[in-house]
Amino acid sequence: MLWKKKRGTAASAKRDLTKIKTPHTYAIIFFVVLACWILTYLIPAGKFSTHTIEYTDANGETATRTVLMADTFRYSYNLDTDFVANALNEIRQDSALMEELEVDEQALADLMETDSSQWTQADLDGVGLNDDEMYSLYGEDFYDTSKKLHKTANVWGTEDFGGFGFLNYVFEGLVSGDRSGSAVGICALILVVGGAFGIIMKTGAIDAGIYAFIKKTKGLERLALPLLFVLFSLGGATFGMAEECIPFAMIMVPFVIALGYDSIVAVTVTYVASQVGNAASWMSPFSVAVAQGIAGIPVLSGATFRLIMWVLVTLGAAAFMMVYAERIRKHPDKSVVYGGDAYFRERLDAVTEEEKEFNLGHKLVLLEMLAVLIWIIWGVTQRGFYIPEIASQFFVMGFVAGVTAIIFKLNGMTINSMASAFQGGVSDLAGTAVVVGMAKGILLVLGGSDADMPSTLNTILHGIGTVLQGVPAFIGAWFMYIFQSLFNLVVTSNSGQAALTMPIMAPLSDLVGVPRQIAVLAYQLGAGFVDAFTPVSASLIGVLGVARIEWGKWAKFQIKMQAFFFLMGTVIIAIAVAINFQ
């Protein structure tokens, strides 16, 4: 009897171990921030000089981008003030150089009268001599190279009081950037989209449309998943679809769950598909075109190879998704998000027969949604619309849907209930918006992503480039792919990653002995695939918020898919090296 009791206790303990609670996304990001903060104590800060290059973009027009100069890396040092004092005397006596450097003569004269031993780079900036200009004139001679400096945030503080502290990463992350980028712009977009879809969901049009679709297709609905995957992949390949997936996910999550799958399948068929297309793109203006322009190779060259790659990678990823999807359809309780999906299942089950009726008002709401989505795609691809414009378009979508619902008396919609629905939609995604700011805080703790500002990230970037010199061609190309994948865990902007890494990876590929086209290929595969996994991706976190999936649970599924992606990427890199892809 005692043995049986002990056996039962052991079995219970074993069962409990298999049900360890997944860490909350907020907790995961906090510990990543903490690890990055510790890393800044171990790795000194470094920087590059930058310059502006011109290249031909995907439209055949001349574009410019500021990129780093790979051979200008130096660690952050204090000034060698004795050397600087002599250098300033020489500069002061050379009127032509003074004019060329646009030095403020009076400010320089005033500086020369102060104690040179107390000078800092800020003093030199005040007279018009920035660090890059001094480095171009004197190399590292004007530094005191006896001690490498670290750029480590305080424990607590703000820019105005004591300097940025890592425990303020939430606020600093939320207010970073501008209206057209992360994190302020993305956060605002998420909140507006949430409010707009709060109104749309209140109309009941999406629920009614789902039931009408299932009723009419009669068993053929499973064919919709691979078809949708291909369409979203095409969106990622052609115009870099990412943030646009957030509203689509709001439609797809209840639709896919109604078909018997789970919310993971819904996120995969929308956001993951778009990033598969982005990774294998032959024409994306935000990734391939930028990277090729910076690398100094013809923009959109190598399109045939990439088009074949897109077809094979998309079909392979869609097949991977369907294997998982069919397993979940047969055994729904095996899904790691089965409990969380109960929210959508219960809502669908609560729809009455009357509400399932697909009437004219519902059809008009869905047609209006389709019209706005087409308007958004046209605006993004033809007019260069971005976050502010997209947010405005989605607000119009929600507003018109609400007015239509009032006119046709859908679900008892009134002006007040329309406002309440908007408020509820904003509330549902407020937590997701906070995650976007938190994730941006990781980059701030590492010192930021500006190549011309001292940071731990720049030192890591330089170190990887140094390690890869002199290795065999395939190994070099493969490690470029690995590096670009890991780098995307911190910098998720495709164009930003290209600006930071391609000036180093392109000349490095010459040293390794592979064409620069392969360096671009390694970049796009690494950046695209990992965007479907990294917890610092604002777009991914937005889609997961819509689907009510914690990142930890998403990672349990996605880590397997990432392994599949990595294998495909490795094979593609090997083929590219074997055929000397130009």
TrEMBL record:
InterPro entries: C4_dicarb_anaerob_car-like, DASS-Related_Transporters
Subcellular location, principal: membrane
Transmembrane segments: 24-43, 183-202, 223-242, 248-273, 280-301, 307-325, 360-378, 390-408, 429-448, 460-483, 532-551, 563-581
Keyword Cell division set for record: no
Gene Ontology CC annotations of this record: plasma membrane
Domain of life: Bacteria
Cellular localization per UniProt: Cell membrane
Bilayer topology: Multi-pass membrane protein
Sorted UniProt keywords: Cell membrane, Membrane, Transmembrane, Transmembrane helix
Designated name of the protein: Basic amino acid antiporter YfcC
Organism of provenance: Candidatus Scybalocola faecigallinarum
Taxonomic lineage from the root: Bacteria, Bacillati, Bacillota, Clostridia, Lachnospirales
